[in-house]
Structure formats: structure tokens, C-alpha cells
Amino acid sequence: QTNNPSKTIDYVTSLKDKLQLLEQNGKLLLNNYEYIEKLQAKVKTLQKLVKHLQQPQLAAKGEEEEFLSNPMNSLSLIRQMHADWTHVEKLMEQPVGQKQMDYIRRMNERKPNQENVEQALVAMHRLASSYELDAADIASGLLDGMQTDAKLSPLECYEMGLLYYNGSLYYGSIEWLETAKELMDKAPSDVYNLLGLTRSDISHLLARCFIALDKLELARKVLLAEPDLSSKTEELLEYFKENKPEEVENDNLIAFHEKTAQLCGSSYKPKPTRLLCSYKTSGKPFLRLAPFQMEQISHDPDIFVFHNVISSIEISILERETEAFMLPARVLDNGKSVLSNIRTVSSVGLPNKNFSRQLNSLITRIRRRISDLSDLNDSYYYLSEVLKYGFGGHYSFHNDFLNSSVFRDDRVATVLLYLNHVPSGGGTMFTQLNLTVQPEPGKAVLWQNLDVETFDFETRNEHASCPVKIGTKFAMAQWIHEREQMFTRPCLKPPKARVYPDKL
Ligand SMILES: O=C(O)CCC(=O)C(=O)O
Ligand SMILES: [Fe+2]
């Protein structure tokens, strides 16, 4: 399916993987229509036969003796009883839809697994918790003030409730379970039953949440209101009390920066500034020919935004050619790169020897442009990354400096280049500056990770990627290192705050 064998399926981020799911669902549907047709054909044949075999019954009704005294009727009945029912039996025994059954079994291997579902549930949790959204709103398609025509069914709401229950977050669980119940009551359907969820399953778990919170009366009320459970209420309560769930901490359900809703949410408005927009023509000589539109969005620390840094053709080449190489991104933890729920994005490091020459040379051109706009020197052996965030995808607040004795050559600045429009969410928020930059294709934002003069850590530029609400976020990050600046930007004062351990 892809030209990179190590590519893992990512249903949350990758549109391609999601499209494939939709396609598979379509194929399963067709397969099932075929199965239903086969079943119907069998039913029809059986009906025809049975109707035929009903004839003696109809003819004899009320006049059985007279009917049987007629030799033709007797012969017919004897023959029919001997032979015809055997045919019916044979027909009944004939298997139906084997081919379709084999198909659905074969498709099992390609279905999302429990882990995939959990990832999607956690992504939804990230949206709910960072944007302070209600379960009922989300379920009805309302995402942070934006009404969409998508909805959740009681089945998904129940799964959310279960996720929180298993992470010992009982209030969260109760909210989702109550939503599941309301949805079920509003539009009752035996489909939910057939798919394995009954109203009493929900009440059951709800009561367990109340017991875990020592709210016995509420638990009793829930059980008494459930026809299937009411007679067993006291018994169940006893059992739940004796078998309270263990306290479990699920790292995936971490709390978010308290400013996320304010800085990333739909009500965020940038503060008016007196800062200027201009064309950047100074610096590298090439800028006199092709200046960048530049906006200063923060002063002390200085943060700049540049427009039209990359063309839509270049963006589509980047997108098309990097897709197959994207893998869940890692963060540095004590010098080691590890997977972590503080950064949920797919990425690929650049340049990459597996890329085509065309792509690598495009990346070199983009990096030269980044170097031009930032007045900083870059070198190909420093990392940059193409990033793709799916729904709920985020990067928790952090600084980009490495502060590690292993990497003494620290990151002096970051340029983040946005490659698409994100319909909702996905901004870059500067948590201490109360500032959020919203992605737009071709827009770049430049901030310093080290103080311009002292090369000390610029902690005020702590930032985060807002969880994506709708759509995906596609971007490229370029971290620029201090060593390359050695001859153009001498360190005026030695960094004071940077204390590295003596030994590597
Ligand atoms: O995607 C963003 O907005 C921020 C990304 C970022 O901070 C990083 O990758 O270091
Ligand atoms: Fe960062």
C-alpha cells in the first residue's frame, strides 16, 4: 500500500488511512447486500415450496375424511410425504452466503484494532478537555462554537465513558455515560442492542462510577430506574461496593495547559499591537530581489511572521512526497528520543536519503529561504521536520532549546512554516505571551530560543501546538543552531543561565 514498509497505519492523522477505512466499509456493505440477497433468495424458494406443500391441508380443512376417501388425494399425500419434504430438508441444509462470510472474515485482519480505537478516543478527550467542551455538545456536533453536521452515537459516548472509567476519572465518565443514555432515550433503536450495548449496560457502569465516588444514593437511583436492574439493585450495590475499581492513572488523560481554551479556542482574539508590517529587504542580498512580507507580532521577545514563504505547488509536492514516510513523532527525553503523549503528531526528518532528488532539492531551497528570512545560518546536517497533526493532535507546552550537555550546540531559533489552512484549532500558542499564531498556507513564524545577545535560554517563548479540532495541520519546523552563527553573530556576553554538567 505504501512504498515504505515501516509505515504504520494512523487512522487519526492520515487522511489516506481514513479514506481506506471508508472504502473498506463500502466494500463490506456491498458484501453484506450480496449476503442479504442470497438469504432472501433462499427464503423465497422455501416459501414457494412450502406453499405448494400446504395444498392437502387447505383442501382437507373441515372435511378430512371425505378428502382422504378420494384415491387421488391419498396417492398425492402418500407420495408427497415420502418424497417432497426430503427436498425441503435438503434446501434448508444448503449453506447460504459462504462466500460473503469468508470475505467478512478475511477483512478482520484489516480492521482497526482496540489500540486504534483508543487513540481516537484519547484524541477526542484532548479536544474535550483542552477546549472545555461538554460531552453533550460534542455528541450533537457542536465543536467550540462551530456546529458541524456530524454526530456521535450512544456507542461512541459509552466508549468515552469507559475510557474515563478505566482511567479513574469518574466525573468525566459520568458525563459521557449520561449523554449516551440521553441519546438512546431520544431515539430508541434496537440497533444499539444488536451492536452489543443496552441501556442497562450504561446504567450499570454509571452506578459503578457513583459508587467509586461514594455516592451511594445516586447509584441506587440509577439502578432503580432501570427495569432490568431494579429488582437486583441492592445486590448489585453490595457487589459494586465490595469490588470498587482500582485507582489507575492513564498518562493519555493528562490535563492540559490552563490557557489552552483561552488561547486556542474560537473566542481568541489577538491583542491589537502597534507593531509594524513591512517588506524585509535587508540581510541576505537575495532579499532585495525577492523581499518577504514581514509582520512583527511581539516585541521583547521579538516574534516575526512572514507571508508567502512557499508556493502552493511546492506545498503539494511536499505533501504528496512525504506522506508515505510519516511516522509518529518522538520527543527528546534525557537525550533519548521517545514516543510520548505530550506530542501527538506524525513527522519525518529532513533531508532524508530515501526522498527523491527533486524533493531533497526543494527542501534545500526552502531551508535557504528560511535562512534568508531569519538572518541566521543553517546547515543541512541540522534537523528539520515535516509535521502532520490529526484531530486532537497537539504538542504540549515546551521550549525548543535542548538544554542538554549532549547537545551543546543548542537551538538558537525556530522557524515554523505552515503548509495548510486548519479549519479549527491547530494554532501555535505562546503560553507566556498570551499570543497565538493561526496557520495559513505559506506563513512562517520565527522566534528565538536563546537570547539574541547573551545566548541565554529565552524561556518566555514557551509554546505549544493547539489541538486540531477540525481538519489536519500540516507544517514544517526548522530548528536553527548556534554553532552556525559563530562568525555572524558573536556572543556578546557569555550565557549565564546555561549551566551544563562538566562531563558529557
Ligand atoms: O506545530 C506547532 O505549532 C509547534 C511545533 C513545535 O513547537 C515543535 O515541533 O517544536
Ligand atoms: Fe517547539
Task: Report what the structure shows.
The chain has 504 residues and is an alpha+beta fold. It has 3 domains: 96 residues; 129 residues, Tetratricopeptide repeat domain (Serine Threonine Protein Phosphatase 5, Tetratricopeptide repeat, Alpha Horseshoe); 226 residues, q2cbj1_9rhob like domain (Jelly Rolls), CATH 2.60.120. It contains 17 helices and 20 strands. It has a 9-stranded antiparallel beta sheet, with helices on one face. It is elongated. It starts with 14 loop residues before the first helix and ends in a 23-residue tail after the last strand. Bound molecules: 2-oxoglutaric acid (AKG) and fe (ii) ion (FE2). The site of fe (ii) ion has 4 residues, from loops.
How many strands, what sense, and barrel or not for the largest sheet?
9 strands, antiparallel
By DSSP, the count of extended strands is: 20
State the shape: elongated
Mean pLDDT level: 91
Give the CATH architecture of the largest domain: Sandwich
Q: Can you count the helices?
A: 17
Relative helix content? 40-55%
Report the β-strand fraction as a percent range.
15-25%
- Rg estimate, integer Å: 32 Å
Uncertain runs are: 1-6
Q: How far is the N terminus from the C terminus? A: 44 Å
How many structural domains can be distinguished in the coordinates? 3
* Strand order in the sheet with the most strands: 3-4-5-17-13-20-11-10-6
Bound molecules: 2-oxoglutaric acid, fe (ii) ion
Oligomer: single chain
CATH topology of the largest domain: Jelly Rolls
CATH domain class name of the largest domain: Mainly Beta
Structure classification: alpha+beta
CATH superfamily of the largest domain: q2cbj1_9rhob like domain
